[in-house]
Specification:
mainly alpha; 0% strand; globular
Length: 136
């Protein structure tokens, strides 16, 4: 098994329709780019994007599932709003799934950080105070 070096690139702007079309055609790479491009550029309807990513949490491909969790965190950062109760419940549901859990936890952290910055700041302070190895 060889190692492949990947080069970072910003995906082009996309729409939820682009994501669905790429998935329907089986073009996984384009679908993943479109998923990120749809949320990062902030041009669309946050509700439509939220529904898209919530639906993709149940996709058969693990890359799509994990990226959907990441994109829900991006949605909180870019738009600053979402149906928080539904999204948090969905991310908590998939956080124990293999290959998706880390992305779901990061998505939950992003939601707290960008929708509730004060609470996140205080939680961070409390966490640092309770970890004695960080006192040095």
């Amino acid at each position: 098994m060889g190692h492949e070096h990947r080069v970072f690139h910003n995906p082009p702007p996309a729409t939820p329709a682009d994501v669905r079309a790429a998935l329907d055609r089986g073009e996984l790479s384009r679908a993943l780019d479109a998923m990120v491009g749809a949320v990062l550029y902030g041009d669309g309807d946050w509700k439509e994007l939220q529904e898209l990513y919530l639906g993709l949490l149940d996709h058969e491909d693990r890359q799509v599932k994990a990226l959907a969790a990441t994109c829900l965190g991006h949605l909180a950062r870019v738009y600053g709003r979402m149906d928080e109760a539904r999204v948090v419940a969905a991310l908590r549901r998939v956080r124990s799934a293999p290959y998706v859990g880390g992305a779901a936890i990061t998505g939950l952290e992003d939601i707290e950080l960008f929708l509730h910055p004060r609470r996140a700041r205080w939680r961070g302070r409390l966490w640092r105070a309770l970890r004695p190895w960080t006192w040095f």
